[in-house]
Design brief:
6-stranded mixed beta sheet, 154 residues, alpha+beta
Length: 154
């Protein structure tokens, strides 16, 4: 038994784990992902400062061993309805953990979202001056949520 543990440990020592390259270009469509960051940031727009809720997702890739696929979704005040819909989808009745009774997002409470498995939908927007498309997260649901929507639509 001890020699098996030694052999397992030796195999791990002989491995070299690489740092994956980050890519913000995902295939258009549905992806399983997890939330890796959730925070409020100040987005500087000329002549006015606005706060934004930003979620960062790491998409699961079973195809590419050297890339880490990331996507982000930013919400501004004008997106209040979408913020409520997405946070309700992810937290259900526990939405009060991140939004107080005054309707303010609680920055230090956003860590409850980090690590949550989700489904995201990516839409491509092409610009004539860019080789790669802008990959916009158009939908966020709990893991399995987008699959259920597809089944219901079929």
């Amino acid at each position: 038994m001890a020699w098996q543990n030694l052999l397992r440990r030796k195999r791990k020592e002989d491995m070299l784990k690489i740092q994956k390259m980050v890519s913000w270009v995902l295939i258009e469509g549905f992806h399983q992902a997890k939330i890796t960051d959730a925070r409020l940031i100040n987005s500087s727009v000329p002549d006015k400062e606005e706060c934004e809720l930003r979620l960062i997702f790491e998409a699961t890739s079973l195809l590419h061993p050297t890339k880490k696929y990331l996507a982000k979704k930013g919400y501004k005040v004008k997106d209040s309805k979408q913020i409520i819909n997405d946070l309700t989808e992810l937290l259900g009745d526990d939405i009060h953990q991140v939004i107080n009774l005054a309707g303010e997002i609680i920055p230090e409470a956003l860590n409850v979202l980090v690590g949550q498995p989700v489904d995201i939908e990516i839409e491509h927007h092409h610009g004539k001056n860019h080789a790669e498309p802008f990959c916009m997260v158009s939908q966020v649901t709990k893991r399995g949520g987008l699959i259920e929507q597809l089944k219901e639509a079929a």
